[in-house]
Structure formats: C-alpha cells, structure tokens
C-alpha cells in the first residue's frame, strides 16, 4: 500500500473515532438529562462541554494560524501522518525537496510524471 493511501486511511480512522466520541457524549448527556438528573442540573454541564469545544478550536487557531475547520484539520492530520510514514520508511524528504527545486517541479507535476501513463502526460 502506498504511503498517501495509508496516511488517508489513518486519518479516516481518527475522524471516525472523533464521531464516535461525539455520539457517546451526546448519548451520555441525553441519558443523564432525561433519566438520571434534570435539565436544571445538566444545563451547566452541557454549557461547559460546548465552551470547552470552542476553547479547543481557538487554541488550534492560535497554534496553527489556520481556521479550525474540519477540512483544514483533515489536511493537517494527513500531512502529519504522511510525514511520519515517510520517516518510518526512511524516505529523505529534505533531499526530495532539494531535487524538486533543482528540477523546478511542483509536487503535483512530480506525481504526474511518476504515476500517470506516458500517453496521458501530454
């Protein structure tokens, strides 16, 4: 399996775990609100859980200087996973960047040259 496919697969697993966490949290809030306690007791808890999510989003913005969107988060996770996989396979990323600059290519044109059949490059 290629590195970018493996990185994409890992990112999808992380995102599905995030969805699972959200579903469990909402289910827990519903259970506690309607069966165990009342809304008067659960309202502050749900407020702080929501505020905590906003604080995490703002911290992400401060640390990365990027919008805290799901697409941006997915891109950041993908690049992080891809770099880890490349390093684990002993791929020299810095050497690749030097060669890329030397040959005056972008990453997309490199992949076009390497992975597309010859007749499609025209």
From TrEMBL:
The lineage of its organism: Eukaryota, Viridiplantae, Streptophyta, Embryophyta, Tracheophyta. It comes from Microthlaspi erraticum. Keywords: Calcium, Calcium channel, Calcium transport, Ion channel, Ion transport, Membrane, Mitochondrion, Mitochondrion inner membrane, Transmembrane, Transmembrane helix, Transport. It is a multi-pass membrane protein. It catalyses: Ca(2+)(in) = Ca(2+)(out). Residues 2-98 form the Calcium uniporter protein C-terminal domain. The chain crosses the membrane at residues 14-33, 45-63. The keyword Membrane applies. It is found in: Mitochondrion inner membrane. This is Calcium uniporter protein C-terminal domain-containing protein. The keyword Cell cycle does not apply. GO terms for molecular function: calcium channel activity; uniporter activity.
